[in-house]
Amino acid sequence: MESEREKQMYSMKISNSVLARVSALVASALIVVACTAVAPAAAPAASATKAPEATAAPEATATTESSAMTETTTVSPTTEVSSTTEMTETAPVSETTGVSETAAPMVSDGVVDVADNPTLGKILVDSKGMTLYVFDKDTAGKSNCTGACLVKWPALIVEDENTAITAGDGVTAEFAVITRDDGTYQVTANGLPLYFYYKDTKPGDVTGQAVGEVWWVVGADGAKITQK
Q: What's this model's pTM, rounded to 2 decimal places?
């Protein structure tokens, strides 16, 4: 009996020893598996560490490009462009002012003469032979040509309201002097104010005839001539 029990005890020891070894092997296998699973995770961590270096390069490039853009903007001065624009806009103003000054009414010597035009007949001119016109929008004793109108149609002006108007041979129109709204004194023929035209550059020119169907040369009798 004791021998049988000893055998059983021996068998149990062997079984426990085997189980212990198997357990040890299983534990070792689990450790190996665990280490293998951890190792791949380390690689992404390393990649994550390098990622900022890869990102840093584009940031540096972006900064460089941004700087380049800023420098380009600085090189193209907006102020200079504005100055050019201002100069361009100022030029017409200066020219307009010049025209206004040139076209300003010149004081006449008070002589109204007559000239023989081959198409229009005998017409009124000043002492220098420049053609005189009347304006349909005027009324007797009142000029309605002001501002920009006077640039193209300068008035026949004399020094003061007491200036005597001298009529040339063959002129039968009645002359007088009126005070304009701007304080100057304009000569009238049969009550209508007399003007020059800025496109008439020499004696005999009648380029203002029938302009706008409201401007007309004047006959020796003071009546407007509507012939074209």
A: 0.56
